[in-house]
Amino acid sequence: MTAGNFAVADAIIVIPARYASSRYPGKPLAAVHGAGGVAKSLIQRSYEAACAVQGTPSVVVATDDDRIAVAARGFGASVVMTPASCANGTERVAAAVARLPMADDGLADIIVNFQGDALLTPPDLVERLIAHMAANPGCPVATAAVRCSPSAYRYLIADQSAGRVGGTTVVVNAKGNALYFSKRVLPHLPPGHPAEAEPPVLLHVGLYAYRRSALAHYAAQPATTLEDLEGLEQLRFLVHGIPVAVVASDPPAWDLIELNNPGDLPAIEAILAQRGIE
Hints:
The protein is an alpha/beta fold. The protein has helices spanning about 40-50, 65-75, 90-100, 125-135, 150-160, 210-220, 225-230, 235-240, 265-275; strands at about 1-5, 5, 10-15, 30-35, 40, 60-65, 80, 110-115, 140-145, 170, 180, 200-210, 245-250.
């Protein structure tokens, strides 16, 4: 896949993974069962999903935990150790890029952050995101979103009603840049509204592409109040006036459920089984 003279191979994918999650400790090593009951760790399933992206030469796991590093090396992944002080995945990706050997694409200008809990991410979303960056050299940051299916919308509303932290939504301006990201379902629809049949909701996918310079700028800025309140690292870009392009797509044939809580496992495992992924 190319965009102009730019090949996907000029980008690198980094998967940030930490053990000490406040909501789900040890999540990257949690067993996720696929078709036929095959069990693989979450980090392995995320790595395999990232490796399905066409033409990308390097996928790297960035972690501060030896248990995750051992597991990742065990299934053949390259690992970059990063400081425990990294406050979020974007900071961890920035730290990994600074430590990445030149032989492992240490000079790539487009860095993809493939969230370690987004194992259901279709590879074509990554390819479209990289192509957008290639076609728009002035774009500092881009992220992916899918138009929410009615079933995914019901899942989000059920999480919200139960007080659980589920997926993230995004609203955009006329240029397709993000106005705001939230763990609430935005825009709000009154219960029973006819729009629930075709929800005007963009479900944010745990996926980003950064220019190297924008990533370094982010890491140099202090955390902001909004990102702390929402628990959404990407809000730091918006607070500091850095536009984030949203590349929207139609929903895939399956719901893009992230593993945010242990209760998400049954739905995720059912999708893996339906898709025949062992």
